[in-house]
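User: Run a structure prediction on this.
Assistant: Running it now.
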Amino acid sequence: MWRDKKPETEAKQSPLPVVLPPEKPIEVKPMAEPMKTPMVNPSDPSRALLGRTMVVKGDLTGNEDLLIAGQFEGTINVQGHSLTIGPEGKVKAEIQAARVVIYGSIHGNINVQERVEIYKSGQVVGDLVAPGISIEDGAYFKGKIEILREGAREPEHPRLVQDSKPSAAVSPRAAS
């Protein structure tokens, strides 16, 4: 009797789970290109051009799109319009624009209403404030980024509130 009975563990072996292939093969699609590379066209009549051999210092304000292929130092304000820094463009400036597209180099802070795009050949050293930012693989960026929320045009900085109560002062002897 004892010997005729099989152990329960052998009798209750559960089958291994079987993984069935999906009915449709899984289609793997490459990630969509993060940004379309716009053409830098210096002959575009709808934008102003600072040519490759130009070196300009000062304040630049305008009501049209601007392409910088040369060198600029100062401030740039083209509110409501786009600024493009060409592959050979070198800019040291504080920038305000609707959109900034960078193929060259910028050293300075950038504040835009729409979007900043930094392409593979682009180099930016400075802070970015924009609702939209894209940085292509291989581009160089060093600075801070502040993403504006929809409807906000100015960066939100907390107000410094000074307390009217006198604060406890540390005496020079206690500090040493």
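DSSP finds two helices and twelve strands in the chain.
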